[in-house]
Structure formats: structure tokens, C-alpha cells
Amino acid sequence: MTSDRPHPPRPTIGCVTTTRADYGIYRPLLAALVRNQRHDVIRFAGGTHLHDSFGRTIDDVRADDFGLVVPVEHFSDRDDPAGIAASAGRAVAAFGDAFSRQPLHLLFLLGDRYEMLAAAMAAQLGRVPIAHLHGGDTTAGAIDDAFRHAISKLAALHFPSLPEHARRLVAMGEADWRIHVTGALALDSIRTFRPEPVEALSAALELDFRSSTLLVCVHPETLSEVPVTEQWNALAEGIREFSGNVLVIGSNADEQFLALRRAITDWCAARPRSRFIPSLSQSRFWSCLAHASAMIGNSSAGIIESASFQLPVVNVGRRQEGRARSGNVLDVPWDAAQIAEALARALDAEYRTQLSRVKNIYGDGHAAERILEVLDRLPPRGTLLHKA
Fold first, then answer.
1. What pLDDT, in 10s, does the model give residues 302-315?
2. For residue 1, is pLDDT > 50?
3. Which domains does the chain have, with CATH numbers?
4. Mind giving me the DSSP string for 48-112?
5. What is the pLDDT of residue 6?
């Protein structure tokens, strides 16, 4: 005998995505939530997703069958502190309005960007419990470091990637039961990833990855007294003797990002065998990591994902200072001579052979499974929200 009673609605899990990079990290979790069919999923897409100059990556978000996509418009294309503050203020209001229209049981936020902090404030004001990914980490050279810790204090649940990050959260006053070490979500996708054939990648990006190719990912170092154009000039001088291909990926929308983009595009226009691309899909970016000779810049991908490809990385400046390394990273300041020396070592055949033994310390590729286990035994909403 079947009951005519309607089934209770499934809990709704939301996630906030504001860049191409964070959405790629969310993917394995979103796929796992959809597969287990115990939750409805809503993706709130703000930040640079809605803008052509960053590749209009909301189209990539919508292409995935992971539930509803809610566009959240708040982004300013100014790159001065006042313009970014205005964008953050609009983000609080825009996310607050979006959250008020959806019955959210839990909201995932990732990392440390100011848009994520704005979403966290809106969620807290709307009494929506927050689950924070990658809390407890450190990036001492960026204002984002403070934003990450602020989000952690607003969050009800924490899914840090490393035990040392969990210990930092405890030191910040977060209760043990709220903290669950899972590893980095990005490695879930990398575990089953198969790169594009080098011929297909070369044709798609109009650079021959069968020859020596350098992948450059540089973001403004927002706590540095050195102007971003001088940062770029030091890196450009440091790679001047490199005669192979150079692929430069566009930066985040941080302070001075417009000045950085102008410097990069001018440099690429004057250098043969170089190309600037504002944005790449996650799978294509990882194919670049698989086929590149080395990576240089200050991107978190050089610290977290690159080790899964045994790729040598020259990490420049202080943006990623404080993050644990897997053994494939060479750290240098914004100094052309030291950059050139580190790049020569990264390209050395003997050094590359040593990296074949590198293991990624950021996890085993099963983070989503661990997160779902926690979601299956969530305490009541009131318990999550009341942080005594």
C-alpha cells in the first residue's frame, strides 16, 4: 500500500561562485550532490562570471547539469580600492537579495576573495548557515588572507584541506565538531582527469606545446608596495632569455588588474611565440599543466594543483607565502636575476626527473565523499547558527 502523503522537500544546498577558478573546484562536490539525490542544488554566479572581458564564464556554469543557476550582478570593472569597495558593497546587497528568494539550508563558500566575504555577510544577515572550503590556509602576501579568516568566523562548518589548517581554525576559536579535514576538492577531478592530446591542445591555443612552453599565471600582489607593473616587468625580464612559447592566463579582478592586463598584452604583442588568454576552462587549463614545461607566477594553482602533474613551478613574490608546498615549487622574490636562475633550474632535465617522485600533499581525490558524509548527519539549523 502506498501513501498519498507528499514527500517532504529536499534540503537545498547553495554555493557561491565568482570566478572561473572557484567554480572548477566546486565541480566534484556539485556532481556528488546531484548523484546522491538527497539535496537540491542552487549555484549563485557573481563576480567576473557575467562579464565578457573575463570570458563570460557563466556560460560554462550553465553548461553543467547541476541544478539552478542564479546570476548575481555586482561587479565593477574599476581596479582602484574605491571601485573594488563599491563592488563589494553591491555584492552584499545583491547576494542578500538572491538568498532571500531561495530556501537555503546550507551555503558553500570557497576561499578568500572579497566577493566571498560579501556573500558571507549576506548569508549571516539572512541566517543561512555557511560551510567554508579552504579555511585555515594562509596567503600572507594578499589582502585575501584576512578575508579568508573573516569568512571562517562567520562559517558554521569548515572543510579545510590539511590538518594544519584545521589546527589554525581551532586556534581561532572554532569548535572541533565544526571542522572536518577533507583534502582539496580540486584533486577529486584531477584524480580521473585525462589531458587533451598535445596536438589538439596546440591547435586550440595556437601554440605548439610539443616545444618548450612556459605557462604564466600572475595576479596582483595586493599587499605589496611594488606597483603591479613593476612586478610584471621583473617577471618579464626574468624570462627574457627563454626562447620557447609563453602562454599567459588573465588575472583575478584584484586591485590594479587593469594595469596588469595592459602590461601583459603589450608584452605579448611585442614577443613572438607568446599569447594572452583572459580565461581557460578548467579542463583546458589542466591540460596546459600536463603539457607545459614549467609554470611561473603567483597563482594558487601553482601551489595546490600543479603537484598532481609533477610540474615545476617558479612562485614569485609573497602572494602565496605561508601555504604548504608539495616539493615542486621554487620560491623567489620579484627580482629578475633570481627569477631567471629559478626558471633555469625548473627547466633542467635532472630537476624534472626528481619531480617524478613528488606526491601532492593536498589530498587523495576523495574530498567530496567526505563532505557528503558530514552533510548526511548535519545538526539542526539552530545548532549550526549558534556559535557560543
1. 999 999 999 999 99
2. no
3. 12-184+364-385 (3.40.50.2000), 198-357 (3.40.50.2000)
4. GGG-GGGT-THHHHHHS-SSEEEE--------SHHHHHHHHHHHHHHHHHHHHTS--SEEEEES-
5. 58
